[in-house]
Amino acid sequence: MTHHVLEILAVSVVFGIIFGPLIARSSSRREKVYGGALAQVFHVIGAGAMVGILPGVIAGLIFGGGFGTAFPVALGLLATSLFSMVLFAIVEKPARPAPQPTEDRGWTEEDARKSGL
Question: Is residue 34 situated within a structural domain?
Fold first, then answer.
């Protein structure tokens, strides 16, 4: 590996370590994770790898590695993120509770009176 690739990976990893857990926590607040610690680990890794793509590409262009060096690193980070999220989904899916069917009452006399028609 050239020093440009190591610099790009270092920048990507630093950004991923800093912002990956923040994004994963924000996502977990919106939708609860049921798969336990293993699912959360895959979620954080996937979020961190995704966050590190843009800073890594920008660092590659600034440090002189060029687009030819930055693009494969970005694809590798994207593949890491997608693979981690697939593993997250595999762990998460069986742990989620089955959705409960809602009972449809249809149009009742009370609904007709409330509608004002």
Answer: yes
**What single-letter amino acid sits at 9?**
L
Asked if 79 contacts 73 with a C-beta cutoff of 8 angstroms, the reply is: no
CA distance 10 to 52: 10
Is-contact 60 51, C-beta < 8 A? Answer: no
**Could you list the residue range(s) of the whole structural domain that residue 16 is in?**
3-96
What would the pLDDT profile of 7-27 be if each residue is shown by its tens digit? Answer: 889 999 999 999 999 999 999
Q: Examine residue 111 and state whether it is found in any structural domain, yes or no.
A: no
Cα separation, 64 vs 60, whole angstroms = 6
- Residue recorded with tokens 């270092």: 10
Burial class, 75, CB count within 10 angstroms (exposed 0-12 / middle 13-18 / buried 19+): exposed
**pLDDT digit string, tens, across residues 26-43:** 998 998 888 889 989 999
